[in-house]
Design goal:
The protein is α+β, with helices and mostly antiparallel strands. The protein is about 40% helix and about 20% strand. The chain has 9 helices and 8 strands. The protein has a 5-stranded mixed β-barrel. A 3-stranded antiparallel β-sheet has the order 7-6-8. It is elongated. The structure holds zinc ion (ZN).
Length: about 250
């Protein structure tokens, strides 16, 4: 039974029996992995604080072929996010984003691009609600895009004609962008050129630079975020539990 070692993000954890915890990791090399950390709730646990929410750790685990849960051997802290996670809005937003991630990404399916995106977003220390909202949109768009759910907005989803950035366009329920000719007679959700430029910036910029860009586009950021949330909810088949509780 070989030991697996990989950099990981700690996404969630639950109590198990008296002294153990079940921890959901997003590993760089093997995607989402669930494991049992034996004795993690004891005062003098070998895991110390390394299983805190959103930490980056160097993870070592064993996986038996017939078991879904791996056995966590070590989790050495690389970066603690204790300070960020102590802030309610950061905690609430990332709890929601992590729930989407766990729902939309199949377990044990490596996705290094997604891993780097999630790690880069968690790394930021947003100063305001607007900055957190910008990170939320960034994460949602990339999650849907890298998960293969978000179609390209470069051409019309009806007639495949390339769309210029300034022409009017509408959004179909499955988030295809539709040209004016194809929308005729039907009421659709409109996407302004400004919103499209915000989406293009998500695709072009690293999250830290997108937060700066988004400061000039707060209303568009929230509207786009609502659309992404709607799409994610329809994929998952229900509205996110975290958002339901918080609204
Ligand atoms: Zn069209």
């Amino acid at each position: 039974m070989p030991i697996v070692e990989t950099e990981s993000l700690v996404l969630r954890s639950y109590d198990l029996a008296e002294a153990d915890r079940i921890v959901v990791f997003f590993t760089r090399d093997h995607g989402i992995v669930r494991g049992v950390a034996k004795g993690a709730r004891r005062l003098k646990s070998k895991f110390g604080g390394s299983l805190e929410l959103f930490s980056t750790v160097h993870l070592s685990y064993f996986q038996k072929e017939d078991r879904e849960l791996v056995s966590v051997q070590k989790a050495e802290m690389m970066t603690s996010r204790f300070a960020q996670a102590s802030r309610p809005q950061y905690l609430k937003t990332f709890s929601y984003l992590v729930e989407l991630l766990v729902e939309l990404l199949p377990p044990n399916d490596p996705n290094e691009k997604m891993y780097r995106m999630a790690a880069a977003c968690l790394e930021l220390s947003p100063d305001s609600g607007e900055e957190i909202a910008a990170i939320e949109l960034y994460f949602e768009v990339w999650l849907l895009r890298l998960g293969g759910y978000l179609p390209s907005w470069a051409s019309c989803g009806g007639c495949s004609r390339p769309l210029s950035e300034n022409e009017p366009a509408a959004l179909s329920p499955d988030l295809h962008l539709i040209c004016e000719a194809c929308t005729k007679g039907r009421h659709r959700d409109l996407v302004s050129p400004d919103q499209r430029s915000v989406l293009a910036a998500v695709g072009r910029l690293p999250p830290s630079e997108f937060v700066v860009f988004a400061a000039e586009h707060n209303p568009d950021v929230s509207e786009l975020s609502a659309k992404m949330r709607q799409m994610a909810a329809s994929i998952i088949g229900r509205v996110s539990r975290v958002k339901q509780v918080s609204t």
